[in-house]
Amino acid sequence: MPSGDYQKFLKEILVSEKDLKIRVAELGRQISADYAGEKILLVCVLRGGVMFLTDLMRHLSIPHMIDFMALSSYGVGARESSGTVRITMDLNMDIYDRHVLIVEDIVDSGRTMASLIEVLETRHPRSLKICTLLDKATRREVDVKLDYVGFDIEDRFVFGYGLDLDEFYRDLPFVGVVDLDAYTPEE
Ligand code: IMP
Ligand code: MG
């Protein structure tokens, strides 16, 4: 059962549980076809990408490994990222000569992904691609090539399905829009 009193500030469901299931399965099939005959390493960006990763994995028919990375952006506050991104937890695996697919929850300004790509390129993977569940393309400040996108969404603050609202509500099975006027953070 979904946690907490989210109904109070859930403005609307933007992507339903059913649509997520259908699209994640489609992405899994597409990725499997594109990398046919190869092994890949899925690099999940903590923490928002976790639910997407675990669902996506179940739709991959190619051999794959997983590893995790945590990034934090300086300044601005919890709901926006600033220019500089710092690695707070690095990968365990060596990505040299591997096919790496980054799995992310959402690309907003693009700064997080751009910095991550820059860092990972220095380790010389065989290939490096990005798979994001959500894309807020109208917010882009830094150009970044997204190879797989689940849904293009408009510029609204969303939560659920891995995405947090002040670290809570990641468990919700849908992606919802927050009514920021009706929302007060948990104590
Ligand atoms: P970017 O560096 O501006 O592209 O920001 C990407 C990060 O900001 C994501 O990985 C999320 O952690 C966070 N983010 C951006 N928009 C949202 C949102 O609507 N809900 C939750 N997190 C968001
Ligand atoms: Mg994130």
Helix content: 10-25%
User: So what's the CATH class?
Assistant: Alpha Beta
Shape: globular
Number of strands: 9
Calculate the mean pLDDT score and round it: 93
CATH domain topology: Rossmann fold
Report, as a whole number of angstroms, the end-to-end distance.
22 Å
CA radius of gyration: 16 Å
Residue fraction in strands: 25-35%
How does the SSE layout of this entry go?
Blueprint: E1 10-15, H1 17-34, E2 40-46, H2 50-57, E3 64-73, E4 85-89, E5 99-107, H3 111-121, E6 127-135, E7 148-152, E8 158-159, E9 175-178
Descriptive account of the structure:
The structure is a single chain. The chain has 187 residues and is an alpha/beta fold. It has one domain (17-74, 82-178): Rossmann fold. It contains 3 helices and 9 strands; from the N terminus they run E-H-E-H-E-E-E-H-E-E-E-E. Strand 2, helix 2 and strand 3 (64-73) form a beta-alpha-beta unit. The mean pLDDT is 93. The chain binds inosinic acid and magnesium ion. The site of inosinic acid (IMP) has 15 residues, from strand 5, helix 3 and strand 8.
Summed up:
The chain has 187 residues and is of the alpha/beta class.
What are the defining features of this structure?
187 residues; alpha/beta; Rossmann fold; six-stranded mixed β-sheet; three-stranded antiparallel β-sheet; 3 helices; 9 strands; globular; binds inosinic acid; binds magnesium ion
